[in-house]
Specification:
globular; 2 domains; Dihydrodipicolinate Reductase, domain 2; six-stranded parallel beta sheet; 30% helix; Rossmann fold
């Protein structure tokens, strides 16, 4: 952070739909925030985006934006296959980054970024906005404090309908398509956060593939250390209710659907006829939802820290290792990858 600056100045690399939500959410942050520049490698997209949101500077080159000395941190929001390349551009210049999930297409990508962020003393975080929702944090608190007894099972789904289009990023293998990296990471991250980022000991899955070879649906069963089982699913070919539940020995916790934007979480006690004994609720999120993760980034930047304890680098790496294991089992390797998950310590 620049000394004496009261506002945190952001640049945006990639001006797709997710960047719109980021801009909207910046208006809801506790810390003073300003978006000073945006860049896209698609002609005219950056200028259109900047005009739409009143952003002072627009660039058709990521490199040019990164030379802007007003920037404290950049938000990387282009497609998955470009996250590594774009983050390297920023980190190699000493610019801190918030990288849209998944932080990298595979674990090797993330290891590279961790090394670079460490070398250049940069803050870096995967943009797992759901992790910072007060409702999700309340659910984790109830689990940690034993409100449902020993945790037994986690259930979560994230399945939505996207009509098949081979050029759509969810189906295009050249863009790291598939439901797993784009949608499945949410239930995986929900269970991972509850298990403090631990790698599962056992993973089983049953995938269905689209005509392009991308995963269009899969369910996953994960066995974590201590015997906790996560039963999860993700898909882009049909929709589910998309709720999430933590089941314990003496109660359960329900995150209202859709759990990734959960506004209400409820605690049930089996000793009281399964009654809801406590409810925690936040104001409707609407078009927003990223403000908690944005504030979290700014807090760590102002502290001079390189990562955030709620979404540390180790957990991003372990999530990538888990998804690598799934794709390796499916034989689903992207055209630009040589291999995935071959290191012994990736299990």
């Amino acid at each position: 952070m620049r000394e004496g600056n009261k506002k945190t100045c952001w640049g945006i690399l990639g001006t797709g739909n997710i960047a719109d939500k980021f801009v909207r959410s910046c208006s809801q942050t506790i810390h003073p925030t300003e978006i000073v520049s945006a860049a896209s490698r698609t002609p005219d997209k950056a200028s259109h985006f900047a005009k739409k949101w009143g952003i002072p500077e627009a660039y058709s080159s990521y490199e040019d934006l990164l030379e802007n000395t007003e920037i404290d941190i950049v938000y990387i929001s282009n497609t998955h296959n470009f996250h590594l390349e774009t983050a390297i551009l920023a980190l190699s210049r000493g610019v801190s980054v918030l990288i849209e999930k998944p932080m990298g297409v595979n674990a090797s990508d993330i290891e590279c970024l961790i090394d670079l962020a460490t070398k250049n003393n940069c803050f870096m975080m995967e943009a797992m906005w759901t992790r910072f929702l007060p409702t999700v944090q309340k659910a984790y608190e109830w689990v940690r404090t034993g409100r449902i007894g020993p945790l037994r099972t986690i259930e979560a789904d994230f399945c939505v309908t996207f009509p098949f289009d081979p050029e759509n990023r969810l189906y295009n293998m050249n863009l790291a398509g598939g439901a797993l990296l784009d949608l499945g990471i949410y239930p995986l991250a929900l269970s991972s956060g509850c298990m403090e980022g631990a790698l599962p000991d056992v993973i089983q899955s049953m995938p269905q593939f689209s005509a392009t070879g991308s995963d269009q649906y899969a369910n996953y069963q994960l066995l974590y250390p201590g015997g906790v089982v996560a039963e999860l699913s993700s898909g882009c070919s049909f929709s589910k209710v998309n709720s999430a539940t933590f089941y314990g020995q003496t109660g359960r916790i329900e995150l209202d659907p859709v759990f990734i934007g959960c506004e209400t979480v409820r605690l049930y006690d089996y000793g009281k006829k399964e009654q809801c004994v406590e409810t925690f609720q936040i104001e409707p999120i609407g078009e927003f939802g990223f403000q908690w993760q944005i504030d979290a980034c700014i807090t760590q930047l102002r502290k001079g820290e390189s990562e955030h304890p709620l979404m540390p680098w180790r957990e991003s790496l372990n999530l990538a290792k888990t998804m690598d294991r799934l794709r390796r089992d499916w034989g689903m390797i992207y055209p630009f990858e040589e291999s995935i998950g071959k290191r012994k310590d990736w299990k």
